[in-house]
Amino acid sequence: MKQIKGVNDFVVKFANVNGTGSASANHLFAKAIFRMGVPVSPRNIFPSNIQGLPTWYEVRVSAKGYLGRRGGVDLMLCVNPQTMEDDIASIEPGGYFVYDSTRPLAPHLKRDDITTFGIPLTEMCMREFKVARLQQLLKNVVYVGALAALLDIEFSILKDLLNDQFKGKEKLISPNVHALEMGYQFAQENFKCPLPIRLDPSVIDAPHIRESKHILMNGNTAAALGAIYGGATVAAWYPITPSTSVVDAFSKYAERMRIDPGTGKRNFAIIQAEDELAAMGIVVGASWNGARAFTATSGPGLSLMSEFLGLAYFAELPVVLIDVQRSGPSTGMPTRSQQSDILAAAYASHGDTKHVLLFPATPRECFDMTVEAFDLAEQLQTPVIMMSDLDLGMNDWMSPPLEWDDNYEMSRGKVLDADALDTAQSWGRYVDVDGDGICYRTLPGTHPDKGAFFTRGSSKNDMAIYSEKGEDYVQNVDRLLRKFETAKSYVPVPKVHDPIPVAKPKTKLKLGALFFGTSASPSYEAVEILADEGYPIDVMRIRAFPFHESLDAFVHEHDLVFVIEQNRDGQMRQLIMNECHIAPDKLTSVLNYSGTPITARTIARQIRQALNATSADIVKLHPETA
Amino acid sequence: MSYYKPKFQHPKLPKNELGYTVADYDGAVSTLCAGCGHDSISAAIRNACFLSAIPPHRIAKLSGIGCSSKMPTYFLGRSHGFNSVHGRMPSVATGASVANRDLIYLGVSGDGDTASIGMGQFVHLIRRNVNMTYIVANNGCYGLTKGQDSATADLGSVGKYGTKNPFDGIDLASLAVLQGASFVGRSFSGDKEQLEPLIRAAMAHRGFAFIDVVSPCVTFANNVGSTKSYAATRENLDAMPIDFVPMREEIRTQYKEGSSQTVTLHDGSIIHLLKARKDYKADSREDALMALQKANSTGKVLTGLLYLDPNSQDLNQVLELASKPLNSLGMDELCPGSRVLKSINEGLR
Question: How far apart are CA B231 and CA B145, in angstroms?
Fold first, then answer.
């Protein structure tokens, strides 16, 4: 039988029962590979449940440093009988299957094109450990030990990690190490170790990752640190998966780093609001008063915050919102990832509104863009929404380390203090002095008799006096549009990479691909796969809305542009069509909206199909390319 | 309504200790209906701030949506104001208050804005004891949309179109007492002698101070049969007068022993409750609820300071906020710097 081979290049998937402590053991597995210096990307694929439902953990090892999902499973480790049938079926031919053999494998589940390893995990733990909870928890550690032998993980690294993990709870170290050794020995004695898929830290095809001293962290923690470093003082929020850990992490760091050393008092306020309406209201109120304030939410929360986002747009208040996207309304699929709030965020609220969006693709970018979001919001006096998602926010990603320039100063934008008000010849809150659409702001309590005004929605003139005159309204919203144009030169520019050389291209069409956020990693990989097959594709990673003018040019320079994203309706494609005035046929959607992160194979397959299906139409559109 | 407000000031207008005249606390000319109760509340707020000698620019005015929420334009023109969205002023005030604890926050809302669309936020504002004064101009109807019953309209009260309200009204004062508000008062827009000192006391109070002000709608709810008309409110008024002495002033008036209760606020200001009742202590929630229920069941409008806890912990204290306002902190106080970030990176390898 053919067996899958690969050094530092395979996908392992764990099938567990939620609430049995499997996530921390699986994390131990991934972190050990990371510490060996081999590129790894773990993904927790979990249900909206505390205990009992099936949960998976997928670990991709990639010598080239591909961090997106590849698709397919090479080794499946299954301790959940609920899903075993589907799990076994999902293994690639030539792959490997590890299971708890305390109960024999049902005959109909046996596959003769995969290699099967039975480890009596339950039996071993019942025998060795007396406490019931440990019997359950340590089953997970036993299988990690067995995988260490099967895949050649450095055992000492696993032990070090356990020591780190249980610092302060030393009693737990020895049973955990014992469990690791039990699994390791069992595998050594009963199986031929290592497997043809295995790790070797001396072989690395992506030296840049080792050189840049990558860290392993999730996007939500990085965003929270960005809020700490960016000087946020007020956080208001309502718990919602998958954004909850943003404020949890902010709270954890603030309690350590934001306590006034003299008085022990807090240089921050965190308010758990009664709902997302109030969370955004608190942020709006704090921003009105000149504090850097933010909230974090997900789809349903974004809907509730729309009303206030519109007010903040018209009242011109800096607001920072971190949207960690998930799928669907109501119960939805709150623990599944999507990029499906693009249009809802871009045009949130009633009336004519548009919002600045940022699209981070790595934890490092979550950190940088959160800091930048505060600067942009205050410079532009408008809401800024950072569009993360569950995949980026809640999973650990290998990322370049976070960096900080100690010379950083907050860009507070055009705010007049008492001295400036005294020397100003005249002042009106909404007078466009500089012609960039951004006007001068005053904060409450600044000056005894200058600079006070009434903040309200849209019924006002440029002196902030109540007005329902048509020309005042038009003047104001046209200026807001001018401000949005100005924003184009403030927001992060798209990333463009040199195209991959293709010796004998199979097409004369000039192909391009646009993507953003967590679609980026698998898109880069898919483009390499397709380049190998003879399809050269130029790429651009979108990092902000409003779109940079180079995006417009990119689309016009190509015959066919694929827009790769994770929602049903091709929302980014629609936004580009709408904002850049591009004919629909130019942009072809590549989509995944199943709730699990898009894979490189999915992207490559859809592009292949599109090229086959549309080449005739393209010739009609662009006869010179035929 | 008037459309012009003369700028002329009598040269001998009295000045407060900051040197401001009452006119310095004026706002724009009101656009509400002539005779609207709300204009009397605006005047009472203006007078209260003048008498208490509060620097106008240290006050922040907040409101939601409705006739009531237009009011902040009509007083304190030197204060910043924020006309937010319907029913959501409480959250905006909460954020503003934690961002700058040094300002004095004055929220103005209506019965629709508070008791219907804003009920959720209102209750949580009380629960958090945000340091602010919150005044509801309560007329039992939606004025700006032409007279629909609001949630505070009394059962059986007759609206402008002659129909009786079939639902029990929400009594905001009882609700506030029950939910744990640290200062609860009720007044009548036509009772300036009581309303002014009540507003002054509320603004001196540390914590959430709520005043429910019956403020008749002359256009849509001043008809016969309306329980919130001027005539009905005057007829059923059961007022407990109060006197407010700010901390800086010496006490000049002597009240006969047994005729008043005295409450001292955290800043040393004193509230005298005149014609004090034997069975009523202002620091007892039970007494307040009992008195409110008794008045409600006999169709009376009980007004005055209903409940006060002068020592409550406001939100800023509960959150253990630094004494320096959060909006004034700089990078030195906020940013841990590159060295800390390096050690965080180390921990993630």
Answer: 24
pLDDT band with cut points at 50, 70 and 90 for residue A204: confident
Tokens of A56: 């998976």
Sorted by sequence, the CB contacts under 8 Å of residue B170 that are 6+ apart come out as B115, B119, B151, B152
Q: Which residues contact A215 (CB under 8 A, 6 or more apart)?
A: A363, A398, A399, A400, A401, A402, B345, B348, B349
- A227-275 per-position pLDDT tens digit: 999 999 999 999 999 999 999 999 999 999 999 999 999 999 999 999 9
CATH number at residue B327: 3.40.50.970
Instruction: Please report whether residue A61 resides in a domain.
Output: yes
Cβ within 8 Å of A, B 191-250: none
Q: 3-state class of B83 per DSSP?
A: strand
pLDDT reading at A616 higher than 70: no
Range of the domain at A10: 6-203
CA distance A156 to chain B (A): 16
Q: What pLDDT is stored for residue A617 in this prediction? A: 54
Q: Which residue of B has its CA nearest to A452?
A: B80
> Percent of chain B at pLDDT above 70?
96
Beta carbons of A234 and B319 less than 8 angstroms apart: no
CA of A373, closest CA in chain B: separation in Å? 16
Lowest average pLDDT, out of A48-62, A200-214, A585-599, A609-623, goes to A609-623
Tell me the torsion sign for CA atoms B295, B296, B299, B300: positive
Structural domain total, chain A: 4
Tens-digit pLDDT profile for residues B147-202: 999 999 999 999 888 999 999 999 999 999 999 999 999 999 999 999 999 999 99
Residue B86 lies in a domain: yes
A355-381 pLDDT, tens per residue? 999 999 999 999 999 999 999 999 999
pLDDT of residue A445: 96
Strands (E) across A253-318 are located at 269-272, 293-297
Q: B341, B342, B343, B346: best mutation site toward chain A, by most A Cβ within 10 Å?
A: B341
B314 is a domain residue: yes
| Whether residue A505 is found in the same domain as residue A575 | yes
What is the domain extent for residue B133?
22-347
Q: Do A215 and B102 touch (CB under 8 A)?
A: no
Do A216 and B90 lie within an 8 Å CB cutoff? no
The whole-angstrom distance between B111's CA and the closest CA on chain A is 19
Q: For the residues of A147-210, what is the DSSP string, one character each?
A: HHHHHT--HHHHHHHHHHHTTT-GGGHHHHHHHHHHHHHHHHHHS-SS-SEE--TT--S-HHHH
On whether any CB of chain A is under 8 Å from the CB of B57, the answer is yes
Are the beta carbons of A290 and B100 separated by less than 8 Å? yes
Provide the number of structural domains found in chain B. 1
> Is the CB of B93 inside 8 Å of chain A's CB atoms?
yes
Is residue A46 predicted with pLDDT exceeding 70?
yes
Distances (CA, A) of A229 to A102, A255, A367, A381, B51: 51, 14, 9, 20, 44
Q: In the predicted model, is pLDDT for residue B260 greater than 60?
A: yes
Q: Is B60 an interface residue toward A (CB < 8 Å)?
A: yes
* Coil, strand or helix at A127: helix
Domain shared by A112 and A19, yes or no: yes
pLDDT value for B280? 81
Task: List the one residue out of A265, A323, A312, A250 whose CA is nearest residue A287.
Answer: A312
Question: Could you tell me whether strands B208-214 and B132-138 are parallel, antiparallel, or unpaired per DSSP bridges?
Answer: parallel
Predicted-complex ipTM score: 0.96
Over residues B1-41, the pLDDT tens digits come to 566 777 777 888 899 999 999 999 999 999 999 999 999 99
Do A383 and A419 belong together in one domain? no
Coil, strand or helix at A479: helix
Handedness of CA A366, A368, A371, A376 (dihedral sign): negative
Please determine, for residue A625, whether its predicted confidence score (pLDDT) is greater than 50.
no
